[in-house]
């Protein structure tokens, strides 16, 4: 199989690239390196089955040219993942997550690529009050520009499948953790503790209940869905049956770091920022019925993430903090 | 009250402008005249409470400038309404219905306009199998680029309401008919009969069940919703409790025209084009509970539309046919 991975130099995309190469696939990664890191893909550069191309998905003609050459599937993972940045910069999701998906689909149409995997988000359920939230939950109300953009991505992909005989696998992710994790709550906590090992500031009051999935489980889930479901439009939640409050995440990080006497400074509300969904728990029954299940608990995923960041302290530097 | 109406020179927008002026509102219409007609607004040009401005909503800076001057609400009706054109020109909805809504919202934010009414669509329920379809139907699968764009519009408006203390009234319309109707199934049938009074070609097999609402009822419904509901986010279906198959629409038009011996040439399938929803029937209970109800039946709405087109044959000329 020959796959293009957009955002394939980033956290999830680079893990997916390694996984597919291991399975014997041919992989082309396109990435604008806004969040992707050379450290995540340079080990593949000598692999004859691997190609890397720096590409800005906002450039429609460049994407069409890049997708030429006979590919079976596009894994579209590239995105601005800064959910909470939307309300400060409300057009960034339009530029990075809306126009880009149209460019990807047009390039697929031009080059007759018929299959697409899309990384959507559990945030798409907005202010739902159904927990765990199934894929066919009531028509949601959006709370973030990020969610609205992903909603458009899903809808546009579905309409391309309807119009152009394409096939899609759409995954609504919870927060993902693990090796090469470069933004999010655990990342933020470790950055803070690196600066001051006695204090941890929370954006929220710590009560928000969230679900987190280990990146290895996420990738196995993506591939399981593609291999075991063959409808025109396949939509899956991808998370864990567990949830954890943000304060307990803090406790787990502090404990794993072997620290003590850390003072917590809590925010005023369960939501950490405008548009934050203070409760995310997805119903993952649909994908589980295909034989997939998460291998790590949330606690184990956090510990694995802390281990990786401790082993790769360079990853904590720079401006990669993107919020939980 | 001071209102801006985007697309206010078009079918629904110009009827809304007249209605609001009649109520004593101050109205500014912005329209790029791609589908709008001078005949629909020139009678208002001498009204001191009315302003018309030719404006392309794709020009973000021009929209910001245009929205200055203190306005209470924006009625955002401007849109590419050619649902079936999407699969031939799959980026037109991105340009005309996606980027424009972001520009409108940014211009509102810049000018501190806090209220927006948005014309969404019953097509947004995609391939639903729940009839009549309520506002909180299961998470829909989109079948058209038009539906995907409207879905984004709804989501982006909701996220602006969440982030910037704005308030919205979102209406999911069925097909609208009546005075100043310039595209759609009845329009198409009359154009055909004007050319050949003995033959009527159908895009579909005529069995598709659709719902149609008289434009006057549509506008009373919009205003009723705004006056009687005051949540941050207010979403209403706007249709009739009736449905009618497309063949019966043909019969009604032919009968109202006083014609006979018309041969029908039917298409092969219930759906008239790729992405067509062959069954649309919305649950309008929510708006009805606020005291609104349609005054005309579908048959009466069609007859009113035929009368208007007979009285205004100029409207049938030109390239205004946009499909049912």
β content of chain A, as a range? 15-25%
Coarse morphology of chain A: globular
The count of helical stretches of chain A stands at 9
Q: What structural class do the secondary elements of chain A suggest?
A: alpha/beta
- Helix content estimate of chain A: 25-40%
Biggest β-sheet of chain A: count, sense, barrel? 7 strands, parallel
- SSE ordering of chain A: EHEEHEHEHEEHEEEHEEHEHH
Kindly report the average pLDDT value of chain A: 94
Largest interface: A-B, 41 and 41 residues
Instruction: Give the end-to-end Cα distance of chain A, rounded to a whole number of Å.
Output: 34 Å
| Strand runs of chain A, count | 13
Specify the oligomeric state. Answer: homodimer
Low-confidence segments of chain A, given as residue ranges, are: 319-324
Alpha-carbon Rg of chain A, integer: 19 Å
Which strand order do you get reading across the main beta sheet of chain A? 3-2-1-4-5-6-11
Which properties best describe this structure?
alpha/beta, two-stranded parallel ribbon, seven-stranded parallel β-sheet, 324 residues, homodimer, 17% strand, 35% helix, 9 helices
